Each structure stands twice: as structure tokens, then as C-alpha cells.
């Protein structure tokens, strides 16, 4: 296998993962040390709640050039972190989650670019989130110093379930604040896969003049009802675990391990494909025969439990809950309500025509039944058109060039969802590239070293700007003008 | 640059919005963008060519032309270009009409099946033609709907497609004498191996 996946999604059996990580140390950024940036100012979130201050934990690779024009921001996915590439110590065997993408001479070439990866707030890897200290709780505890602590002092003071629900837009805002701190006015590119792709897309909408290129991989313009349904199953697994304790498990000295394992098992199924599972496990039995019980029997069960257990050891349940909500809420069109002209289907009838109209009514009723069927079909098309119009409105002011990548076997965020983004960008005359990469790994494909995919990313990031392809105000207008002829 | 590309360029207005169907490595699109300030998209299915186009800084979309142009709204482009791909799609007639729905004008080039070399191949040798413009064997050719200049013009007439300009060239024309060039203009269906048409469905002003 020429690929090595995300260290937090862990698709490979342990021995295989170790083997490939050794192979990949060639061309690595080497040992990296994360850095924490403290932001003392209050941050008001989309949910209207305010964090009094916050920290961002960040890793950087490569060197920022003198005019600060070679910076690339990496946005992580649901289970990801700031540790995208390299190793944390000389004997660290596990490279960052996108080490096959980022490094010297790799698709995102650290010889050429200064790469920044930030852990988002609400996560559990060092940026402010449910597992970090809640300043409100510290001050309230000071008033009740006599109150006995049920657990470790620090654990009693963490945000836990009190951490506000954050959105993709909130994350982008904090990333923009980090950009200011780093002195980066314009990113050479912002790159992300899955939920990371959503952040990249949101960046292009919210801060159109602060990025030149936007790479949106295995992503979607918004979650479908089915996507939300899977997330809800994951949340309910956690919420219904008796050890969840309304999210105050750290204070209670418990941990909703079973809930988190179950949530990850469900999620993991959606990252893979039927074919990939068939190839990897088939119906293989662990002991070679039916045991007629509920212990692990099929290899696929063993694999899923192993993945769930590994995940539950390294992830926080409250973080998982709020991350899935951030996914569900994602909608870059929210601030750009498209002017949808809903024409009345009932024409106004003058009074004198009302008698004639009543005669017509009987005739109409029979016709209506037929028309309803037609309407149902039309409605699907109308919805599609409305979605497109909303996206067009959101993208109207973007100024960057896009690369959109999907994978043929991804059914979590299928190629059609990426194409919605592409269609809306083309309809607004924006520069966009699109590739649909044939890969067997489902949604997880974005973490694999697929030459064609890596080649496209590399080519896009290093391509010259052709004058004609530069975003120009006039072009969007031109295009709208031509569109108006239809 | 290829002869048909050079000619196609003449018929594309500066700063217009162009869709290039089967854009290959984006050679024509890159030329149009750099020299004529044209904007637009290239559609291609060959993975390597797509990556080449992306690395040129163009806007390349992976799409099979057989899936049609439904994703594009009516009149969303000034010109749609299709160089030597018409003969390789499943329904050239449907695609041609779709092209003239999304753009005001279409510039189309295709190999002429009635070229004398092809006639010679089939008529005298009894073999399917293999030539510079048609470099494939019958069993591996992507060219499933080959036609002649006359065939194409009949299709245009049938669908009320107006031919604004047409040009016949020989791929190896650069080496030809002026006499040979003028002969090609006299009897294109026999002597030219590549056709270039500029067509529209809208009424000329």
C-alpha cells in the first residue's frame, strides 16, 4: 500500500501503519514543536455567546518569505489536529495526519511554502475547548473555596458541556485573527479536506481579499439530511451513555467510552465503502467458525471495535458532539439569502370572471391531480435551482482561484456535492478547477497518497496566474449580463 | 500552435467568455487567455491533460462530454469551442445543439473523413483509413461518429444551424506550396483533412 492515512482515523491495522510511517519519514518536515497563541480579547461567536479569551495551538512548517506571500493555511477535519506533518520527537513513529501531502518536495512543498496548521477551538488537542479551563468556573470557584472538589482541581474547572457551540464561520474568524498575529495579510492558499474544505470555502466567502487560492477536497456546500442523520446517531450514542453525566464526566470521574466508541464506529462506516470493506474483511471470521454469541466474530466487527477504542482514548466526547453540530450547521449561503422570486401559481381573477371561474373549477380539479405529479418532479428541479442560486449569491464576491477535488467512491460527501460547488462557481464566472479522482477508499481517500490527486494539488499551488484567469470585477458582471439574455 | 487552433482564435472575440470542450492540456485556452484576455473553462476527461491544464493556471473541469452540458445555463458563454472531439462523442447532434444553447456561437473542428487519403485507403486498399488526422486502427479508435464536410453541413441544415464561417485546412499545410493551398480551398472535401466551422443558432444581425 502506497498510502498512509490520518493518524486520528486509523484505517490500517497497527503493524501496517507503523511500516508505512517508517517509509514516509523520507521527505518529512522532521521534528516539529507546536506553539500556543493566546488571544486575550473576548470572542463573540455565531451562537451569540462570548468566550472571554482563547488559545490556539499551531504548527508551522517551512519558512515565511520576506514579503509574507508564501503562506498556506491547512484546515483540519472532524478528528484532526494542528499536527498535520512531521513528528513530535526523534522516536515518534506516528507522523502528522497529512504527512503524505505536506513536506519537502511533496504536493504542499515546505521548501517553497510556509505551512500553518491550527487546531480549532472546541477541539481537544490544545486549543481552547471543552477540556480546557473555563475562566468563569475558576472565578466562581474562588467564591466557594470551601466547596469540596469531586475530582482533580483542573478537571473540575474545565468547560465541559458549557463550552459554546462553535461553527465553521467562528473557526474561520479565529483563523483570520491568527493570520493577523502572524502578519499574513493574504494567504497563498487555504487548503482543507472534508470539514477542512468547508473552512477553506467559508474563508473565500468571508474574507475574499485574504486568499489567492482555495483548495476544497472531499467536501460539500452543506450537509444533506442523510449526513445529519448519521451525525445524530453518533450524538445519541454519546448522549445516552450513562457515563456521559450531562457532559460533566470529567468532574464525575467517569468517561462515556462506550458512547464514543459507538459514535466513531458509525462515523467510520460512512468514511469507507462497501467494496473496501469487502476487500479488507469480507465475511472472514476471527475464529473460523460461528460462536452463536455476541462477542466479536466477524473480522469487520473486530476492526470497528478496535478503531472505536483507539479513538475513544484520544478524543473528547463533548468535542465530538460539538464538532458534529458544527458540520450540521455549515451553510455558507446563510448570510446571502438569494432573491428567490416565488411566483404565485394562482393568477388574480377579476370579480366579473368569478362565475366563469367556478365552472372552470371542476375541470381544474381533475387537472390538478395530474399536475401534482408533475409539480413533484418540478419541485426537485426548483430546489436544485434554489440551492444553486443561493450558492451563486454566496460566491459572487469571492476573489480566489479554486481547486475542488472529489473521490468517486466517497458517499459521505459524494462527487455530486462537490459539483454543486463547481457549478455555482462557474455560474458566477469564477476561476475553478475540478477533478473527480478514482479511488477505492471512500471519503477517507483524501488522506491517501494518490499520485493524480497530489499532482493536481501541487500543480494548482505552483501554477502561474494568467492575466485572463485573474478574478476581475468586470468578468462577473460580464457574465451576469450574458446570463440575463436567457 | 495547431492550424485549427490558429483559425479558431481568429473567430473568438477578445475578452469574451469561452467554453472549450475537450480542451486537452489547455493549449488553446492558455493562448486565448494570454493573448486575447479571454476567460472561461476547459472540459476534459484525460487525467494527465487535466493536471497539465491546472498547472498552467487555467480553469479545467473534469467532465465527460457525453454527459452533456446541462450544468451550464442558456447563453452562459460567448463562444463554445470544440476541437476534434465531435466525432468522438456518443450523440454529436445532441451535443451540437446543446453547445448552441449555452453559447451564442460555436467553433468546431473535426477530421474530414472524405479526405483523399481516406478515400484511397478504403477505396483502393479496402482498409479503414489511418492518417495524420485519424491516427487510430478501427478497433481502438475513439472516433465513433466520423463525418465529412458535406455530412456536417447537412446536419446543420436539418437543425437550422447557420454557418457563419468555414475553413478547410490540411494538417501538414505549412509545408504546402501556394498552389496546393489554393487547390485545397477549391476542393476541400477531397483535399483538406481538417474542417473548421463557426456556427450559430441565433439570427445573424
Automatic annotation (TrEMBL), chain B:
CDD domains according to UniProt: AdoMet_MTases (cd02440)
Domain of life: Bacteria
Protein name: Methionine biosynthesis protein MetW
Source organism per UniProt: Psychrobacter namhaensis
Amino acid at each position: 500500500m502506497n498510502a498512509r492515512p490520518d493518524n486520528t482515523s486509523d484505517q490500517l491495522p497497527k503493524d501496517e501503519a507503523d511500516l508505512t510511517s517508517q517509509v514516509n519519514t523520507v521527505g518529512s518536515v522532521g521534528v516539529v514543536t507546536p506553539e500556543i497563541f493566546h488571544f486575550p480579547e473576548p470572542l463573540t461567536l455565531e451562537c451569540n455567546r462570548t468566550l472571554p479569551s482563547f488559545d490556539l495551538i499551531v504548527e508551522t512548517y517551512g519558512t515565511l518569505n520576506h514579503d509574507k506571500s508564501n503562506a498556506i493555511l491547512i484546515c483540519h477535519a472532524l478528528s484532526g489536529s494542528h499536527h498535520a506533518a512531521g513528528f513530535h520527537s526523534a522516536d515518534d513513529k506516528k507522523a502528522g495526519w497529512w504527512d503524505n501531502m505536506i513536506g519537502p518536495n511533496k504536493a504542499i512543498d515546505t521548501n517553497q511554502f510556509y505551512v500553518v496548521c491550527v487546531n480549532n477551538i472546541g477541539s481537544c488537542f490544545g486549543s481552547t475547548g471543552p477540556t480546557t479551563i473555563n475562566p468563569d468556573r475558576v472565578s466562581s470557584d474562588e467564591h466557594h473555596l470551601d466547596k469540596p472538589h469531586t475530582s482533580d482541581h483542573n478537571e473540575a474547572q474545565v468547560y465541559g458541556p458549557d463550552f459554546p457551540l462553535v461553527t465553521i464561520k467562528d473557526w474561520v474568524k479565529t483563523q483570520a485573527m491568527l493570520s493577523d498575529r502572524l502578519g499574513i495579510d493574504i494567504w497563498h492558499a487555504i487548503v482543507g479536506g472534508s470539514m477542512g474544505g468547508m473552512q477553506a470555502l467559508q474563508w473565500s466567502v468571508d474574507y475574499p481579499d485574504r486568499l489567492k487560492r482555495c483548495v476544497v477536497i472531499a467536501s460539500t456546500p452543506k450537509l444533506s439530511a442523510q449526513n445529519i442523520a448519521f451525525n445524530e446517531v453518533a450524538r445519541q450514542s454519546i448522549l445516552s451513555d450513562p457515563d456521559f453525566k450531562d457532559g460533566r464526566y470529567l468532574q464525575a470521574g467517569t468517561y462515556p467510552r462506550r458512547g464514543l466508541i459507538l459514535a466513531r464506529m458509525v462515523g467510520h462506516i460512512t468514511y469507507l465503502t462497501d467494496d473496501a470493506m469487502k476487500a479488507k474483511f469480507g465475511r472472514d471470521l476471527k475464529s473460523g467458525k460461528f460462536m452463536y454469541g455476541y462477542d466479536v466474530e466477524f473480522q469487520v466487527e473486530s476492526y470497528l471495535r478496535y478503531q472505536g477504542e483507539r479513538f475513544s482514548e484520544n478524543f473528547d466526547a463533548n468535542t465530538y458532539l460539538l464538532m458534529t453540530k458544527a458540520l450540521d450547521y455549515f451553510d455558507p449561503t446563510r448570510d446571502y439569502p438569494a432573491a428567490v422570486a416565488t411566483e404565485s401559481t394562482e393568477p388574480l381573477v377579476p370579480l366579473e370572471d368569478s362565475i366563469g371561474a367556478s365552472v372552470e373549477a371542476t375541470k381544474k380539479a381533475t387537472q390538478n391531480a395530474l399536475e401534482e405529479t408533475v409539480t413533484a418532479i418540478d419541485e426537485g428541479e426548483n430546489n436544485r435551482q434554489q440551492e444553486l442560486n443561493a450558492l451563486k449569491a454566496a460566491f459572487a464576491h469571492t476573489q480566489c482561484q479554486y481547486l475542488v477535488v472529489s473521490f468517486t467512491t466517497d458517499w459521505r460527501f459524494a462527487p455530486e456535492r462537490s459539483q454543486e460547488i463547481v457549478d455555482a462557481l462557474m455560474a458566477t464566472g469564477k476561476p475553478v478547477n475540478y477533478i473527480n479522482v478514482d479511488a477505492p477508499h471512500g471519503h477517507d481517500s483524501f488522506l491517501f497518497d494518490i499520485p493524480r490527486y497530489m499532482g493536481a494539488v501541487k500543480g494548482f499551488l505552483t501554477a502561474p496566474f494568467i492575466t485572463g484567469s485573474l478574478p476581475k470585477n468586470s468578468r462577473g458582471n460580464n457574465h451576469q449580463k450574458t446570463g440575463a439574455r436567457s | 500552435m495547431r492550424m485549427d487552433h490558429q483559425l479558431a482564435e481568429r473567430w473568438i472575440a477578445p475578452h469574451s467568455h469561452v467554453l472549450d470542450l475537450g480542451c486537452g492540456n489547455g493549449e488553446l485556452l492558455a493562448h486565448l487567455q494570454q493573448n486575447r484576455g479571454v476567460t472561461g473553462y476547459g472540459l476534459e476527461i484525460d487525467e494527465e491533460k487535466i493536471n497539465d491544464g491546472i498547472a498552467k493556471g487555467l480553469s479545467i473541469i473534469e467532465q465527460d462530454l457525453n454527459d452533456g452540458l446541462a450544468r451550464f445555463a442558456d447563453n452562459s458563454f460567448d463562444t463554445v469551442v470544440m476541437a476534434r472531439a465531435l466525432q468522438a462523442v456518443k450523440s454529436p447532434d445532441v451535443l451540437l445543439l446543446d453547445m448552441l444553447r449555452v453559447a451564442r456561437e460555436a467553433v468546431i473542428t473535426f477530421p474530414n473523413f472524405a479526405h483523399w487519403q481516406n478515400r484511397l485507403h478504403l477505396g483502393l486498399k479496402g482498409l479503414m483509413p489511418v492518417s495524420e488526422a485519424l491516427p487510430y486502427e478501427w478497433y481502438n479508435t475513439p472516433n465513433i461518429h466520423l463525418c465529412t464536410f458535406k455530412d456536417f453541413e447537412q446536419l446543420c441544415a436539418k437543425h437550422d444551424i447557420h454557418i457563419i464561417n468555414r475553413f478547410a485546412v490540411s494538417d501538414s499545410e505549412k509545408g504546402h506550396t501556394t498552389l496546393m493551398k489554393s487547390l485545397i480551398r477549391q476542393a476541400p472535401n477531397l483535399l483538406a483533412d481538417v474542417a473548421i466551422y463557426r456556427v450559430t443558432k441565433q439570427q445573424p444581425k
